[in-house]
Amino acid sequence: MSTLPAATHEQVIRSGPVALNMQRAAAQGITPQDILRIIRRRLALILLVWVAVIGLTAALTYVWMVNWPSYRASALIQVESTEPEKPYGGGMWDNRTFVKDQVERALGDQAMMIKSLTVLQDTLENPAVRETYWWREEVRQEPTVAMLELQGELSAAPLRDRNIIQVAYSTRKIDDAPVIVNAVVQHYFERLNQSMRGRFAEELRGLEDEVNEAQRQLNAKIAEIENYTATDAAIPGIMDQQTVVTDKLMRLGAMLTEAQARMEALRSQYDAYQQAGVEKMPVTPEIIQAVESDPLIANLEMRRTGLAEQKALLLERFGPGHRSVEEVESRIATVAREAESRRREKIDQYKSMQMERARLDTLMATDQVHQIAQKYSEAEAAQTDLDRKRARLENLDDEKRRAEERLDKSRKALDELNYVVSKPTPVRIKRMQNATRPLERSSPRWKVTLPAGFVLGLMLGVGLALLLEFANTSVRTPVDIVRHAAMPVLGMVPELDDEEVHVDDVEMVTRRAPRSMIAECFRRTRTNLMFSCPPDRQRTVLITSAQPEEGKTAVAVNLAVVHAQAGRKVLLVDCNFRRPALNKAFPQMKKQGLSNLLIGQCELKDLVNNTEIPTLDVIGSGPTPPNPAELLGSSYFRAFLAEAASQYDQVLLDGPPALLVSDGIVAAAAVDGVVIVTRAGETSRGALKRLRDTLDRVGVHVLGVVLNAAETQVGGYFKEMYRSYYDYDEQASQVLPGPSAAGKGSGPADAEVKV
Description:
Elements: H1 6-14, H2 17-27, H3 32-41, H4 43-67, E1 71-84, H5 100-114, H6 117-124, H7 127-130, H8 133-138, H9 143-153, E2 155-158, E3 164-171, H10 176-230, H11 244-280, H12 285-292, H13 295-317, H14 323-422, E4 427-433, H15 446-471, H16 478-485, E5 489-494, H17 509-512, H18 517-530, E6 540-545, H19 552-565, E7 570-574, H20 582-585, H21 594-598, H22 604-607, E8 609-610, E9 616-619, H23 628-632, H24 635-647, E10 650-654, H25 663-668, E11 673-679, H26 685-697, E12 702-710, H27 719-728
Parallel strand pairs: 5-12, 6-10, 6-11, 7-9, 7-10, 11-12
Antiparallel strand pairs: 1-3, 1-4, 2-3, 8-9
């Protein structure tokens, strides 16, 4: 027994790896392993459908080949450009490389033109086409039918990443297809050339009118230039850069600049004189020279010089301080004062004269600037008029040049168009390859139909297998239980008919054939049940199912036997009052049973039936009561369970179907746990889910599910396990009983066990 408390131990088990894997399996959808299992289970059906489809494909291909063969012929047309080729290396058309979109549009337009009604109508009128078997027999000389069929089945499509259009058609006769395709291509070129020449004729008329108009405009411009140069622009050298007017303007400009500079200098000097005044005007050397040249001042200087010589003589004769010397000195001072006064007077006079001269010079310079500026303005106006006339003449020359260019361009375009029209094929579209007689049949082709039938047959076989598998909503595998009901699987019991040994009754298998594969499955289920939760939480266990006939009695009997064979003291109780079944497995049971105990007629010790297994006791259901659910829901039933659990290690109850009657749900609420039995291939997934939901609502602890009558066919769970088990345990092949369906009927308890 576990040392953990019951609740803790149960929590550990429910949150362990098994529970995690169960949650993952319930959450995920179908897996590759499921598909592989389905394929293995339905392998025979898949092979049958596969072979049938391949055979049908071969037969249909042969019939198709004999009665409706198809021969395909194709021609290639290269579309370099829908515009004409450029002649003489230039002009209105060029050989530029078109972008991808332009090329695709051009190819698409030509493909549509190939399938146009006009081209197809010309094709149908072709004598060679009317001699074909296709015209005589297939369309029976009906133009409308032939037109619709040819337009619908004729292929005209650009090749990928090429500027080539492939024109193809298929017929039943090998010689008809190339005739029809070549006729279509021939009439396509005829229509193309015809339409292009019609277009070029209109362009020719337009270009001729354009040339005449350009010539007229050029002549008019030449006449306008001649008239202008003879009248308004009749100036010699008018178009030269240097003219007489220009030279005069340049000279006057230089003179005006020089005069303005001189005027500014004189004005500045006069302004300076005015600001300083006569007294503060500087004395220039010229003024000093003019003053010294004055006669009066010169005479006074001569007198002062004579008196100075006389003084010198007197000093030699009388010495300083003599009256004669002092008289001469007085006369010298008088002459010097007179000369200085005269000198200042003359200086002021000359300064006034200099200021007046500066004023007059400024006035004269200003008048000169005005005169030169007036002449410059007149010359500038003449130069502006000259420039205007020159610009006008230049514009006329430019217009003349442009008129000449337009005329040259129009003449060149006209020459190019005449060159294009003269060619047999105006556009750059040519026939690369004519349609030839096909070397082989295009359809049907064995190398296409047989692989297609091979793949289609395999897909149909696998699809049918999956459809049948998904259409079956019954529980067949443990994965179905975990995925759709989200409940753990305690064990799986194989179908009794698939057992390699003879067992008459499945209820007897653990007692009469303990070394059989089925008995081993029950022992494995017992082990899983023991480890599903703590022992004290599974002392009383109810064995139930969703519907009747699912083998719950067989599971209950064999679980009780294997528990007892393991040394545990086990009590097996029949709780199915409505249809008791333990009396078939244990015929020696007393007539009194659980119903008698629950109504107080007897005690537990009075009802116990001993079996051939010392540690296994059995209690029957007793007489059928009118109120089974009330009995199972009473306190007497819970008291019985408590008393039985105190005396036995394991109490197993064979209950009624829980979805069919309420007895099972009432009994399930009173026990420690419930084991659900489901029969593979018969119990629906919906029924199992409803049973789980019902038990969850009443708080029942579901210990797990036992899958009964599990498949052993190819892809099943026990096909290889059977062989491996009996090869491993050689004693299991000694003495074993005959066949019977699990949970359906019963055989004699003392049936012979034979190989």
